[in-house]
Design a protein that fits this description.
With 124 residues, the chain is an all-beta fold. The protein contains no helices and 11 strands. The strands form 2 sheets. Strands 2, 4, 5, 6, 9, 10 and 11 form a 7-stranded mixed beta sheet that branches.
């Protein structure tokens, strides 16, 4: 079981930026990693995923051009840079690992380790 800890959440005005970090206790260099979010009254949804080398990424349409996922395998850490934030980006952001799978993964049911979540609130 991989332990994941998110950090970097907070309150920001619309148009601002935040950078989330997710540190893993175990090795994740052969694993896909991703970010999901759950807004008020909504189901948890896919945001971004990155393959094992960091060379391939995937994003949900609503964040393309605004969010960037990256990883540092030496530190077992994944990041989510969020720019031009909108009120609808508000929610709890979760990082996740699909252990042993090298490609990107958009399906939340395929991930096997999850962080506790970081609150992101965007005011307008």
């Amino acid at each position: 079981q991989v332990q994941l800890v998110e950090s970097g959440g907070g309150l920001v005005q619309a148009g601002g930026s935040l950078k989330l970090s997710c540190a893993a206790s175990g090795r994740t260099f052969t694993s896909a990693m991703g970010w999901f979010r759950q807004g008020p009254g909504k189901e948890r949804e896919f945001v971004a995923s990155i393959n094992w080398t960091g060379g391939i990424t995937a994003y949900t349409d609503s964040v393309k051009g605004r969010f960037t996922i990256s990883r540092d395998n030496a530190k077992s850490t994944v990041y989510l840079q969020m720019n031009s934030l909108k009120a609808e980006d508000t929610g709890v952001y979760y990082c996740a690992v699909r252990t042993g799978f090298r490609g990107t993964t958009t399906d939340r049911t395929l991930y096997d380790s999850w962080g506790q979540g970081a609150q992101v609130t965007v005011s307008s």
